[in-house]
Amino acid sequence: MLKTIKQDLWSHLLLILLAFVALYPFFYMIITSFKTNGQFYSNFFGITFPLHFENYATAWEAIGGYIFNSVFIGVASVIIIIATSALAGYSFARLRYKGKNFLYMSVVALLMIPGLLTLIPLFLLIKSFGLLDSYLGLIIAFAAGGQAFTIFVFRQSFASLPEELFEAARIDGCGELRVFWQIVLPLSKPIIGTMAIWNLLAIWNEYMMPLVLMSNPDKFPITVGLIQFESQFVSQTLYGPMFAGYTIASLPLLILFLFTMRLFMKGLTSGAVKI
């Protein structure tokens, strides 16, 4: 009994230490965001008073537009990814036609190609469409980049649904689109939500693609915009507003995950995603 208690104690202490290491940088970012330069240099690691909330107003004025750009680009890209990948996944899982396996294996093979290798061809392709430095060009690029993995996951998920449901629907006279809309989508809400969150996180954190495809600072997403923001405040050595900007930039994803964590975990444990 005593041995078990000691083992549990050390396990809990280790978990507490790991949690501290993981959470302290975020805590440090928040407390620094309320400091003036004098408070920053006088008390580097601790909380100082008074708290300077005006740092957030200054930061929001500088990066608010970047956040709106990221939200617009991310939501539009995710809608395209989910809509097209769900249809493709249903096709690979439930329809029968010549060349289906070859097409599916070609999609899966794309997962083995690092994204950086496609950056220059993608740039040339977007340029040939005349869509450089535009929201549409970046949305198309993100939507194309998220297809392969999402199609793979949807195909696995749709293939695991009971065949009897589809046979009963077809006997009742349902066409394929009606089966997809009324049977497949309602039963696949957890995995659809999971893939939507997964792709939104990837798009929100992407840096190289918007850096290459965009040149107008007014259209930058938050990842590229933060570099502009950081250079502005580092040159003035204003650490409070700079860390306030970092905090604001991290809040949308934090809020999204807090409100969708149950759906995300349900999708991961539904058997469709095996990592």
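Above is the first protein from milestone M3; the second protein from the same milestone is given next.
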Amino acid sequence: MDSPQTTRVPKVFLVRTEIDLLLADLTEGDPVPSERDLATRFGVARETVRQALRELLVEGRIRRQGRGTVISRPKLTQPLSLRSYTEGAISLGRTPGRILVAWEDVAADAATATDLEVELGTEVMHLERVLLADGERVGLESTYLPLHRFATLRGTYDPTTSLYAAIRATGVELAGARERIETVLAAPREAGLLECTTALPMLLLHRRSVDADGAPIERVRSLYRGDRVAFEARLSPEPA
């Protein structure tokens, strides 16, 4: 077994370090040298460079553009809060948008019925939308609402705008939510809607929101591209 003094650092790590230094001098939209150029510069195989670039793609540092690669803009960092996606994006200087995929009434499955506190099979409103930031597809949001509470949205709501603003306009205020985050890979349909590959890591959020009386408002499944979106939370000490 190698001692700490003799352990060799993997080539891909050394190449990644050199590429990081190279990217530090570039700005958003600048072209990244090709795999061949980087392999020649660092004296390594193209596969070693390819692996380092794959890591940078997943991290969102670079992105494909045409047949080349360029520097990406920083990730959209969303706060974990009761703010809507629209509010969060605007606060970061980004332009939010949405593409409607589906808006329909569906029978509640077991998980949806439990979260919305309705009988199994009860019709609920389902809204599925692609989330945009500056015109780029960054997420896929699937929302379920109790139909008996929000049926009027059918005639008043523009699905390309903030749903939370529309809910508040009905007189309902979001008072709390439970949210879980995990990492997954996108299914082929989801990858197609988000214009990425199924190999790209995703951030999956499950949220259940309630009003001041504890009555359920929504059940949401949100899938975000790991190379385009990050989340942060403000933490404080718990009382002793």
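Note on the second protein: The beta strands are 62-65, 68-71, 76-79, 96-107, 123-133, 136-146, 176-185, 201-210, 216-225, 229-232.
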